[in-house]
Amino acid sequence: MVKIRDIELGDFPLLLAPMEDVSDPPFRALCKRHGADLMFTEFISSEGLIRDAAKSVMKLDIYEYERPIGIQIFGAEIESMKQAAEIIEQTNPDILDINFGCPVKKVACKGAGAGILQDIPKMVMLTDAIVKSTKLPVTVKTRLGWDDQSKHIVEVAERLQDVGIEALSIHGRTRKQMYKGEADWTLIGDVKNNPRMRIPIFGNGDIDTPEKAVEYKNTYGVDGIMIGRASIGNPWIFDQIKHYVRTGEHLPKPDLRAKAEAAIEHLQMSVKWKGEVLGVAEMKRHYTNYFKGIEHFKETRMKLVTSFDLNEILETLEAIRENAGNFKLITD
Question: Beta-carbon neighbour count of residue 142 at 10 Å?
């Protein structure tokens, strides 16, 4: 049984990665239903939170059915991060997660996210301060290093454990790689198999099939897997991996009708939570993934991604659902 403090996550937990403008409550609801064992909010700016910025505060919304749920923060200033941790504690999540992995320029170049990988002593000092400032279990998500010359993750993992983090998720790329190339899990395995490590180690990067999940589980010995981009438009991936781990067999893939129903529900929840304008706009990134690999679908897809009229989009999605048998999948 994998545990973070007293939170039981099962024998091989699957985690939903924190993804900006993706891992919101509507999407998390679908992932939870389809087997995610632990989920995290979108990352929240510590500076935005202590300034009471509306977008940051909104991301604190968590619901009982999501538990266990972690709230993730990022920032480069120790005092701001401590204040943010105090605000988050009042929201009563199960876990406080620190983002030391976001590679985007506007975050990393301010010394936050993956930017702090250029200053490991500060990374350790900041983590220590947060662990001491909250009663919540503190976890960290990070990368192998800043670039190929600074892959110090084995040492970093030890130092973070020494100051009190209770689990570590590692994305198998450097900041310089962004999301390009193949994730290197070798060092993730080295962290997990380091005899000094006592906390759960979760691997992240490129897991997009049940077969790959089992292969990486067996090869690198990680305690669980964090899934990010492969879940977008595909919340079923958690159940699919779990079933394959348990039985060695594949669950039937969702048919087009099931995908259309999920997209409709996702859109309706998104509009309810964010309002119509934002809810409609931020759903657009999901449609391409929900409806990937369908023959003669271009015109229908264009309607979904170009329209900002909620009723028109719902009508299009309902037409897909009702006529699902007339479409042909051209890829698996």
Answer: 25
Give the integer Cα–Cα distance in Å for 146 and 183. Answer: 14
In angstroms, the CA 259 to CA 264 distance is: 9
pTM for the model stands at 0.93
DSSP string, 46-97: HHHHHTT-HHHHHTT---GGG-SEEEEEE-S-HHHHHHHHHHHHHH--SEEE
Could you tell me where the DSSP H helices lie in 175-292?
186-192, 210-220, 237-247, 256-274, 276-290
Rounded Cα gap, residues 114 and 153, in angstroms: 12
For 154-207, the pLDDT digits (tens) are 999 999 999 999 999 999 999 988 888 889 999 999 999 999 999 999 999 999
Sole residue written with tokens 């079933």: 243
Q: What are 296-326's pLDDT values in tens digits?
A: 888 899 999 999 999 999 999 999 999 887 7
3-state SS record for 7-22: EECCCCCEEECCCCCC
Cα-based angle 142, 147, 151 (whole degrees, multiple of 5) = 60
Is 102 a known active-site residue? yes
**Which residue is catalytic, options 44, 49, 73, 102?**
102
Cβ neighbours, 10 Å, residue 2: 19
Which residue, chain included where needed, has tokens 């009702």?
322
